[in-house]
Amino acid sequence: MKFGLLYEHQLPRPWTENAERRLFHEAIEQVELADRLGIDYVWEVEHHFLEEYAHSSAPEVFLGACSRNTSRIRLGHGVVLAPPGYNHPARVAERIATLDIVSDGRVDWGTGESASRTELEGFGVDPEEKREMWAEAVAQTASMMVMEPYPGFDGRYFSMPCRNVVPKPLQKPHPPIWVACSKRETIHMAARAGIGALTFAFIDPEDAGRWAKEYYEIVKSEECVPIGHAVNANIAMVTGFSCHEDPQEAKHRGMDGFRFFGYSLGHYYVFGNHRPGRTNVWERFEEARDKLPEVGSGSGIGTPDELTEHLGKFEAAGVDQVIFIQQGGRNRHEDICASLELFASRVMPGFHAHEAEREARKQAELAPYIEAAMARRRALEPLAEDRIPTIAPLGRNIVQTNVPDDAEVTQHIHADITVPLEDPLLRRESAD
């Protein structure tokens, strides 16, 4: 089984002048440590305006920074918000491909719809249509990363003409696609689309087993019609994280952070009224703390032996990856690093020891089903050669000044730059 780290960049109030700088730089240090320790993934969210809960509005920038001093950890968008009101599909294709190149092919492309009113209304995205927006945008973005040129699209939520979107990603046909899932129905949707399920729901191993079973049953069925140009059959589950030899110390270091994560999520998505720039979410959490349930080894918080037992149940349930929420609330940087080091030395080796064998068996079992699914895929037809448009430059509209026939026809754009007003090659051909 693989392991990942999730970053929301939580920052409870009150904020000091350099709090955000420290937050981001410590997170980068943690990712670099995780890379050295052999952690498989780092997942970075995209959220907007969710004060205290998530200060991660530009995941591609953070992941780009993480790529420079790491060599093996995969860089996962958890997720890119797909509705075009947030991100134009062509810009997503460009950013994903660029990150894939600079990281030497280590990107996983997580996608999502968004669900908070704060974000949706902030970008003018209709919550009633966001699922359809997601489907349209993800399919077209995948094709932009593959087709040369992309033939263009006239859709319900965005349109663009034929263009060759560059650069192209290093991974072919494109980085693995995932979708954020908080409900059982969304996991089913992920399976039908042939993409990975990033399950941001706090469930026990028994429920995880049912969800994983249903996911793979759909992947193997005729319901699976890939939204991208490849199938990424994987299911990941999120849990809390704090590892220490003393179970009480593990709880002391990790419980409040995990509880704040859940509370602040609920504040923006379920029960909270929020005044931008004024509401203090941490203060409200402290008032509610005594009413919140305690958490322990059943949520990834405990001793190495307790974590081994807990995570073993997820592995047995068919979960492909467990993602740890270790940066939550006021969890301290040094405690996070110590937990990662202990986990990597005492817990992770037992799961990694047979990971390659497990993955090989899984891929061999799925191969005929994936081949059948790809055959059902509705491919976007490339343009015939004679239908690829010729795009004339705007400079053709510049009014030319009368000049002698033998003079160089140029337009001064800048003090040190001149450009021809007409293609010198065409002029030469005309003269011939």
> In angstroms, what is the radius of gyration?
25 Å
Tell me the CATH superfamily of the largest domain.
Luciferase-like domain
| Helical/strand content category | alpha/beta
What share of residues is helical? 40-55%
Domain unit count? 2
The profile of the biggest β sheet is: 8 strands, parallel, barrel
CATH class of the largest domain: Alpha Beta
Distance between the first and last residues' Cα: 69 Å
Tell me the strand percentage band: 5-15%
Write a structural description.
With 432 residues, the chain is α/β, with parallel strands linked by helices. The chain folds into 2 domains: 375 residues, Alpha-Beta Barrel (TIM Barrel); 40 residues, no CATH class. It is built from 14 helices and 15 strands. 43% of the residues are buried.
Short description:
This protein is of the alpha/beta class. The protein contains 14 helices and 15 strands. The chain has an eight-stranded parallel beta barrel, surrounded by seven helices. Strands 6-7 form a two-stranded antiparallel ribbon. Strands 11-12 form a two-stranded parallel ribbon.
What layout of secondary structure does this protein have?
Elements: E1 2-7, H1 19-37, E2 41-44, H2 59-68, E3 74-77, E4 80-81, H3 89-102, E5 107-112, H4 117-122, H5 130-146, E6 153-154, E7 159-160, E8 177-181, H6 184-193, E9 196-199, H7 205-219, E10 235-240, E11 242-243, H8 247-271, H9 281-288, E12 301-302, H10 304-316, E13 321-325, H11 333-346, H12 348-352, H13 355-376, E14 410-414, E15 417-420, H14 424-431
Parallel strand pairs: 1-2, 1-13, 2-3, 3-5, 4-5, 5-8, 8-9, 9-10, 10-13, 11-12
Antiparallel strand pairs: 6-7, 14-15
